[in-house]
Design a protein that fits this description.
Elements (H helix, E strand, L loop, with lengths): L10 H10 L18 E2 L12 E2 L1 H16 L9 H11 L2 H13 L12 H17 L1 H10 L8 H6 L7 H14 L3 H10 L1
Helix pairs in contact: 1-2, 2-3, 2-4, 3-4, 5-6, 8-9
């Protein structure tokens, strides 16, 4: 509840979360105003908003993302986190999704993907490039000749398990494997297999 209060978070963090809410799985029923558990919005002072509804998924996603930003003052909120939390909310309650996400961030070390400069993402992309060179030398030469780096296609695989671009059933399986193995190794196996 504290994370939802005015002034709990920096205005820029709240604005970024609010911008990303409607971008998160917009076709899923949990994120549509007329869908699952939609509730009317209170009338706003500017005359707008009365009579409209907000989807339950958006409300839960907002609460979890703001709560995590309040917990982790170094990371706060970074784009791509919304997809991971959104997927968790499809299978878990708000509180369980928050703690699962927190465990991914701290226990698995995923938060290093979201720190300034994305240090874990950069090292994973370098390691993936090395793996492509070692396991798929012909493809590596082709990529090299075309000037294609792993960053051209794999950033979202490491930051949000491809939940923003891959077929949902594939991406959620990656998320499941990362949770089960408590590491990003499944992303490397997936990357090599798909390439």
């Amino acid at each position: 509840a504290r994370a939802m209060g005015d002034g709990a978070l920096d205005r820029h963090v709240v604005e970024q979360i609010e911008r990303d809410l409607p971008r998160t799985f917009p076709r899923h029923t949990m994120w549509r105003a007329s869908g699952y558990g939609a509730t009317p919005l209170p009338p706003s002072g500017d005359g707008g908003g009365s009579g409209s509804e907000e989807a339950a998924g958006l409300q839960m996603l907002r609460c979890v993302l703001r709560s995590y930003a309040l917990l982790d003052s170094e990371v706060l909120y970074v784009q791509a986190m919304n997809y991971v939390v959104g997927a968790l909310l499809m299978y878990q309650t708000e509180e369980v999704a928050f703690w699962t996400f927190t465990q991914l961030m701290w226990g698995v070390g995923l938060r290093r993907c979201f720190l300034q400069g994305l240090p874990l993402v950069m090292s994973c992309l370098d390691a993936l490039g090395d793996e492509i060179q070692r396991q798929l030398p012909r493809l590596h030469k082709h990529f090299e000749a075309a000037g294609v780096m792993p960053s051209a296609f794999a950033i979202s695989w490491f930051m949000c398990f491809g939940l923003d671009k891959l077929p949902f059933c594939v991406a959620v399986k990656l998320l499941d494997l990362v949770c089960a193995e408590r590491s990003l190794r499944p992303i490397f196996r997936f990357s090599i297999a798909i390439l």
